[in-house]
Amino acid sequence: MSPGAIANRGNHSLSNKLSIPCPCCGSREVFYSCEPKCCFNHVCARCSASFQTMTRAIGALAEAIPPPDPPPDCTEPTVACAKCESIAVYQIEDGRLACGDCGTLLELEITDVAPA
Fold first, then answer.
1. pTM over 0.85
2. pLDDT, tens digit, for every residue of 90-113?
3. How many structural domains compose the chain?
4. In what order do the strands lie in the sheet with 41-44?
5. Whole-angstrom Cα distance, residue 107 to residue 8?
6. Closest CA to 80 of 104, 63, 96
7. Which of 21, 26, 91, 101 is most exposed, with minimal Cβ within 10 Å?
8. Would you list the DSSP string of 73-113?
9. 2 lies in a domain?
10. Structural domain boundaries, residue 70
11. Residue 3 covered by a domain
12. In 20-80, beta strands by DSSP E
């Protein structure tokens, strides 16, 4: 893969905002209910279940990951990088998660699920 291939192909970003399905009903209408880098508590708009997110490092990318355009707002799903604790974690083109700051590939983990 040539330099910049992940970061930019045809002048459009290949990273996307996180889309996290509710562990109770599967809805992707999930929002972040706390301030960045606090508890990572998320709530499902459909069934009102709450849950927290975390990541596990599973590898590294050789290239930088740019933020999505437009960038996520403060109510959209988020998670911290297991390696550097940055919240610049995005979904890349193949569906995997990657940290935009350190380039670590990540696996999403859902914890503390509380059905409504």
1. no
2. 999 888 999 999 999 999 999 999
3. 1
4. 15-16, 89-92, 97-99, 104-114, 50-60, 41-44, 30-32
5. 23
6. 104
7. 26
8. -TTS-----TTT--S-EEEETTS-EEETTT-EEEEEEEEEE
9. no
10. 15-114
11. no
12. 30-32, 41-44, 50-60
AA identity, residue 109: E
Rounded Cα distance between 51 and 9, Å, is 35
C-alpha to C-alpha distance for 90 and 108, rounded to whole angstroms: 11
Phi-psi region of 103 (alpha: psi -120 to 50; beta: other; left: phi over 0): left
Asked, for residue 79, whether it belongs to a domain, the answer is yes
Cα–Cα distance for residue pair 53/112, rounded to 1 Å: 9
Q: Rg for the chain (alpha carbons), in Å?
A: 14
Q: To the nearest whole number, what is the mean pLDDT of the chain?
A: 86
Q: Identify the bridge partners of residue 56 per DSSP, sorted by sequence position.
A: 107
**Is residue 5 assigned to a domain?**
no
CA distance 107 to 7: 20
Is 90 exceeded by the pLDDT of residue 9? Answer: no
Which structure tokens are listed for 56?
């596990």
> With the CA atoms of 98, 101, 102 and 108 taken in that order, what torsion angle do they form, in degrees rounded to the nearest 10?
-30
